[in-house]
# Entry
Amino acid sequence: MDAIADPNFKHQGNKPGSVEESPSLLTVIVDITPQLWTEFDLKNGKKDSILDVLKALIVFLNAHLAFNTSNQVALIAAHSQGIKYLYPKNKADDDEISSKNEKEDRDLFIISKNMYRRFRNVDETLVEELYMLFKEEEQSIGKVTQKSTLAGGISAALAYTDRITREMETISLKSRIMVLTCGSDKGNRDEVFQYIPIMNCIFSATKIKCPIDVVKIGGSKESTFLQQTTDATNGIYLHVTSTDGLLQYLSTAMFIDPSLRQIIVKPNKGSVDFRTSCYLTGKVVAVGYICSVCLCVLSIIPPGNVCPACDSEFDERVIAKLKKKPVVPRLTKRKSANHVSKK
Amino acid sequence: MSHSGAATFKKVAGIITIDEDASPAEMVWRSTAGDKTHTIVLDTIDKLQATPATSEKMMLRLIGKVEQHDSKRAKTDGAEGTPRAGQDGSSAEGTPAPKPQTHMFSFNNREVMENIKSTLQLIISRYKDNEIYEEKRKMADGTSGGGAGGPGGAGDDGTEAALHETGGMTSVLSAAPLINTAQLDDSLSQSKLLANLKLQQSLLKHDKRLMRAFQETVMNAGLGPAEFWATRVAQLRTFALATSQRIGPYNVLSTIKPVASSENKVNVNLSREKILSIFENYPIVKKAYDDNVPKNFKEQEFWARFFSSKLFRKLRGEKLMQSDRGDVIIDRYISLDQEYDRKDDEALLHPVKKFIDIDGNEEDDPVKFGHRPHFTMRPGVDVNGNSDGTIDILKGMNRLSEKMVTALENEYSRAKLQNDAQDSPDEEERASLDIRDLQTTYKADYAMVHLNNKEKTNQNTRHATQQEDGGESAQPAVQVSSEAIKESITTVISELTRDLDLTQVLPDKQTSIDVNAEVISAVKINAKQAKHNNVDQTLGAFVNSIAGENDAKSDLPMELVESCRILHSTCCEFLKHFYIHFQSGDYKQALKVNTLYKHLKDCISKLNELLSDVKDGEGDEIAATCTAYLKPVLTSITLAVERYDNAFKEVNREILASR
# Structure
């Protein structure tokens, strides 16, 4: 009897102890726009901070992979001309480009061969793709930079997350998104124009219950919309002044599992600015006007009574009502002003 | 229940009949020969005695009441009616006055005697309860004015039931809705709400906080009540709706639960509303009541009879057994009730639209013609075709439910809704019967909103923001040359082609420690806050953990916080009204704006007064907290005053300059 009962018992006893943490997907969006980073370098008097960031990021991704054998990573770059999946590689591009570049790149063994295979797979692809990306960037210096690549990156990440979660439905994959951006002063201003796409991302992220974390390096401490993003999605907002110790930041603050978000106290600093920006002037507004069609926020009554975002015409009477502002105590004052002053 | 039986009275065989139709009820004994009768009016009977079941003799003795003023109504036609004295000392009153009258009957069948006995018991106890009630009423007449109704006796298997009514008339009157619920849309209009003083008063009574605000602003500071309410129309409307809701008709009888009391009686509590509700729901009861009260019996007797009747059980939805004891008079209405039911069924029948009315062609009725369905297909009927009454009960319940629903039809503007719907009664039917297989499927139509993200706008704003940059930050914007960018890209590329040494990424120890400390300190600060807030899982927002504990902790004494709060709400109230009129663009409002402006100035001085008082009286620390509390409102009032001043100067520039 004992012989039969014992193993059964042990088996059951082991189970709760060996419960594996549910696997999770980490999607990172990194802003590599060279202009921003060069600006940052100039300001801090350092060189090539982007490299430090990328290295720290690679280690961070490896660490995530190391947590659980089923863990997955994805890396999306937002660059000056658009976005690019760095890992996993885009298969369509792959065939075309790899054949072309095979000769020059494949013999460069950038990553040491002794590395753990899962790390190496990811890291090699990343470095390769980054290399290609920077080559592209070299060509596009001086071109007009796209505005909302970061928001585009987040959208792409959400789409990817949603797809993978559906594919992996059986293992109930948890997912989170991390945005790594460099905040120059100008970059912060540009962010203003990303308001609508970022808001859309927030809504989708809350819907698929995917927290979005933000690490902002340099620039101003606050980042209105990215902070709103983290606040709405249960994410963490971290502002780092320099790239020193970035890996430490990432590993202390950025490894909170999505399932623990409700309970754990997050290392957010300061309070979130919930204001939005004016579509026309880019000013952050607390009280303003809003278009009833596209919800575009304005701080002034737009010229021509037309919404600058969606071209819908505003009702003249409503505009007249808004413009009616001029104050009240007039005519009567002319009579009563004397009257009052006499008293 | 048998009301007659053979009995021997004074050794003459005869038949006893109990006549409940007479009021008061009578018991008549008639000799078989028909030459002798003996009538006993039952409300004069005080006691009823019967030989026990064990005894061989079967006798029933009725002992009459002893009354001071001699009003014996029992008369004997039989010549030698000699009253026999109660042997068991029945004259417990101990009054030696006239001896009670006794009537003695003997039976030859115990069952018959038992039947007669229980019927008599029931009737006699009913009369007795009446008397007790009358006495009580006489005594209580001075004290309780409103309480109408009273106890009555009702027998149920030899027990007695007393019925108590609680005077509920006053509460019914006070619950009259404050608005006209029949025309809800109309009564909830802004003008009606603002004119409804009664409603406003009761809302003020109801909401203490609002009352305080009203006192402060309207009574003490002179804001017009119309203004006060104009901004609270929504609140008024909500309150009106909330208070005007009332309980609709419900299954009253099922809520009436007889309670057994100590004296072997069954008590039924019945309130005025319940009686009204019964009458409303069951017209048959109303009819029975109208027919019999007060002609045949008093109100409480009616209810006592009703609750012991079969009619009551039927209406309540219980199965009627052949052996059930009922009430002779009330039970007569059962057959009438069936007639009522039939009428109800007709009234409640949903009119079938002509478009799909199969009954229109009676030939098509499959139930009328053809074979009789098998007994398994006939609900509520067993093999022999006997109905157990379940179907009737179910039907009755359904009827009741439908009546309840229809009773609400005219409430809350629903009549209007129905009229609207009936404009095209067949339209909906037709639409639902349309064959649409070949029609194109409905496609959701979205309006495309084209968002302009024009480079032009961006360029414009770029200039604007850059200008702002210069003003805002002391740091000059770093100009990045394309060479610098190129250089950095080249280094990155060259770096990427070289061996990547990831072991160097880890920061040195001191940096790591610093970073750690930084993150942990942030967590610590947040943890303190997190203690005060509980995350609501469903809302995803912070909510207060304990209901009612809305207040954050304050160092200030309670009275001070309270006065701060009142002052704050008063200021906000004035600010609100000031802006409403200030921005209205209607020059007629100018005077009102002016008075509100003065009120605002008063508010500023009141605020300053309070702050300086606190500073003198309570010390700097508390004054600082107090200032922190009131600073926002002070700032906003100052801003409003400033705006007014500027606008005033602007408008009257010429006049001011000319002076």
Chain A touches chain B through 85 residues (CB under 8 Å). Residues 97 and 103 of chain A are 11 Å apart (CA to CA).
